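Collaborator request log, item 7. Partner lab (contact: R.S.) asked for a structural prediction of Fatty acid hydroxylase family protein to inform their binding assays.
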Amino acid sequence: MPPAHDPAPNRLGANGPSPPGNRQNKYRSSKFPEAGVFWSFHQMHHSSEYYNLSTALRQGAVQDVATLFFDLLQAVAIPPNIFVVHRYLNLIYQFWLHSNAVPYLGPLEYFLNTPSSHRVHHGRNPYCIDRNYGGTLIIWDRLFGTYEPERQDEEIAYGLVTPVASFNQLWCQFFEFKALGYDKGQMRDDNGKEIFPGLWNKVKAAFWPPGYFPGVKTKYFFMWLYMDDNTEGIPKIEHPVVPYNPPLTTPLRFYLLVQWLILIAGSLQFDAHRQTLSWPYFLSSLVYLILFLQMFGYYFDHSPISVIFDCSRLAFATAVGLLTWDISFAIYGIASLFTVYLLRSTGNIVAVQKKK
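Returned to partner:
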């Protein structure tokens, strides 16, 4: 019986840092999210059903918490300047890997991580699961048996094994913590019997591989377990694959584009002045920016609360502008409220109640 959200989540690794003298540690830290709920820290990066350069920027908000243990281990022996330089060079290198435009690169595939190898890493096809963990080098995958070449006769489908089917960014960031940390341990079979009875079995449900169930074979990799058969429980891909992408009208798209540009400008201004802000102003600004970003997800999902949520945000912006005599902020709020009213009254905003 499959879990409530993800039968065997795409357990591909997090982007952990590694020192130049010990690149194998990158491979070990990449496998860390196979330890059950730790996958939740990184799944956001793999939840996109599209694969392009923007996927490289789609990161978990608390992802670095999962690799903190490895950071501390390396800090004992690696000078900070070397550690930081290597970490960010590693991340920069991985940016170009998120592309469907770059073909197989011949001999380079033997030792470098390439777009072809990384496409497999992001795939949810059975043969792609738990494969190609390398950040810059692919030699560790070849050495430890987790390398898998891209198959030319099978189109890769991207995203989680069970697509999240939502643009709600807070839900996308954190839903898997509940799914693996709690829901999985509460599952019952068709006869109503607990699949993970007792405290210890519930701990195993949370911290053993996400695809683990009683009877599933596992192996040890250093200090944690991983699936003996990486394809077990993974459904075959049914083509054609249609990514989750509810349609939006052109006027609404234009409104959201303008709002996105305003959000970018506001975020840059916030980042430039954040060190000089008081804590109350800093926290309130941060919360507002998060709620601003949340608004897009509601519109993209055709959520029934999209208009109410956006109008509440804009009313708050208008009130702040008027109370602080920030005329530009007040005008922004009023103009945006009027635009939302026009979009709603002309049928350009569609709200649909999702089926439970």
